[in-house]
TrEMBL record:
Transmembrane intervals: 64-84, 91-113, 119-141, 162-181, 212-232, 244-265, 271-295
Name of protein: Heme A synthase
Record organism: Paenibacillus validus
InterPro entries on file: COX15/CtaA_fam, COX15/CtaA_HemeA_synthase
Pathway: Porphyrin-containing compound metabolism
Subcellular location: Membrane
Domain of life according to the entry: Bacteria
Length: 314
């Protein structure tokens, strides 16, 4: 019991640390501090303690936090593999360690050698995967862990269960497009919201095409999550894990779309940086919830639904 409390505490620290890394990574990109330490890694401009500039402070702080969280995650990994009887916990901590190392290596390569925007956009995606795995690991040691292991008796049709995983995978595509917008510095490609440069369908060229593609993808994500929620609502009880996950997914995708509008409307104002960080925080929460949604859906029982059955409306 004592060891389980330690694993829970370390998994919580790992999850919070990964969340902080996501936010700090977004801050590095938005403040253009990625070159704050020059071409040196792991040193910063050839020094262990670099000269104080805003860019070097932001970049080096990000590196420091990654290192500390990596040590915490390593300790968590050792304890989980030695003392946990849950196979899924070992998968989660293993996945977290793999993507943490991957994003650290990609970050180092981005410093040492110039990388394309398409490659740099993967960095946020890998960090997001690390956070998702640490979130699932922490939930194993909470009251939600049982639903992730054996389910709670909820019955979902095969189509709904497959749809959950489609939405999860598609959400990652939307995340990548958002990261690509940031790394190509295309955020100003669409001025105004919901119209893009005063047009319903703008020209698909340059930064305008990149931003508009992300907007359309985000809108589709919102619609499919709404549809998924309605189908889950027609088959699951309100107190079930999958219903709660579907409801939270709908809430957070709505907030995410609203924060995207906030980012666009704040361009040119001092609040723009805050709006951008809020956008990164909300997509992290949404993706984490969708991952939990996907795992719990795997442990639901088969529910046969007539082809003509429609979800009941709110």
């Amino acid at each position: 019991m004592k060891m389980e409390r330690r694993m829970k505490a370390l998994s919580l620290a790992s999850m919070l640390g990964m969340f902080l890394i996501l936010v700090m990574g977004a801050l590095v990109t938005k403040t253009e501090s990625g070159r704050g330490c020059g071409d040196d890694w792991p040193l910063c401009n050839g020094k262990f303690v670099p000269a104080y500039t805003i860019e070097s402070f932001i970049e080096y702080s990000h590196r420091f936090v990654v290192g500390v969280v990596g040590i915490i995650l390593l300790a968590t990994t050792i304890l989980v593999f030695l003392y946990s009887k849950r196979k899924d916990a070992k998968w989660y901590v293993g996945g977290a360690m793999f993507f943490t190392l991957l994003q650290a290596v990609l970050g180092a390569l981005a410093v040492l050698w110039p990388q394309s925007s398409a490659v740099l956009a993967l960095h946020f995606g890998f960090s997001l995967m690390s956070f998702a795995f640490t979130l699932l690991l922490y939930l194993v040691f909470t009251k939600y862990g049982e639903a992730m292991h054996r389910g709670d008796g909820t019955r979902l049709s095969r189509g709904v269960r497959m749809s959950v995983w489609f939405v999860l995978i598609y959400s990652y595509v939307v995340v990548y497009l958002g990261a690509f917008v940031r790394h190509t510095e295309s955020v100003g490609g669409c001025i105004g919201w919901p119209l893009c440069n005063g047009q319903v369908i703008p020209e698909f060229t340059g930064s305008t095409g990149i931003v508009f593609a992300h907007r359309v993808a985000a809108a589709v994500l919102g619609l499919v999550i709404l549809a998924l929620f309605l189908f889950v609502r027609s088959q699951a009880q309100p107190d079930s894990s999958v219903y709660q996950a579907a409801k939270l997914s709908l809430i957070f995708v709505t907030l995410q779309i609203a924060s995207g509008a906030f980012v666009t409307l704040s361009i040119g104002y001092e609040i723009y940086l805050l709006a951008s960080l809020l956008h990164a925080v909300l997509i992290s929460c949404l993706f984490g919830i969708l991952c939990y949604f996907g795992i719990t859906s795997l442990h639901t029982e088969e529910h046969n639904v007539q082809a003509y059955a429609a979800p009941r409306l709110p």
